[in-house]
């Protein structure tokens, strides 16, 4: 298995640990500043990464903006950890960005994931 595929598998496994409780959503500053749009929350970003990797979403500028608007402030992680889930959300978002941007770079401007 290629390194890229292995990383995808490991990342999807980590993302699957999310219980979809959404406790982390309300504390996310970008979720707040976008008037409660879930795509701009911690949970929303993890869902976007998961669906892009699975091929059930197609990459576009709006999704790129959602992923790169995360401030990496870790407020979501504090809540997730306090609720016993313990997900490293910032790291998962960073890994998703790395994996997806590397694929886009390889595929050129009109690449589809
Ligand atoms: S608090 Fe943790 S488990 Fe709950 S939705 Fe957020 S990331 Fe998932
Ligand atoms: S790290 Fe990102 S997703 Fe988490 S609360 Fe901060 S801006 Fe939101």
Secondary-structure map with pairings?
Blueprint: H1 3-15, H2 29-33, H3 42-54, H4 61-68, H5 75-82, H6 89-107
This protein binds iron/sulfur cluster (2 copies).
Short structural description:
The protein is mostly helical and 113 residues long.
Describe this structure in words.
- By secondary structure, the protein is mainly alpha-helical.
- Helix content is 58%, strand content 0%.
- The chain has a single domain (3-107), classed as Fumarate Reductase Iron-sulfur Protein, Chain B, domain 2 (Orthogonal Bundle).
- The chain has six helices and no strands.
- The two termini are 18 Å apart.
- The model has no long low-confidence stretch (mean pLDDT 93).
- Bound molecules: iron/sulfur cluster (2 copies).
- Residues 28-30, 42, 45, 70-76, 89-90 line the site of one iron/sulfur cluster (SF4).
Radius of gyration: 14 Å
Distance between the termini: 18 Å
Which descriptor suits the 3D outline?
globular
Q: Classify the fold: give the CATH topology.
A: Fumarate Reductase Iron-sulfur Protein, Chain B, domain 2
How many domains would you count in the coordinates? Answer: 1
**What class would the helix/strand composition place it in?**
mainly alpha
Number of strands: 0
Class in CATH?
Answer: Mainly Alpha
Q: Runs with pLDDT <50, length 5+?
A: none
Q: Report the sheet with the most strands, covering strand number, pairing sense and barrel closure.
A: none
Q: Which architecture name does CATH use?
A: Orthogonal Bundle
- Cofactors, ions and other ligands in the entry: iron/sulfur cluster
Helix content: 55-70%
The H/E string reads HHHHHH
The CATH superfamily appears as: Alpha-helical ferredoxin
Average pLDDT: 93
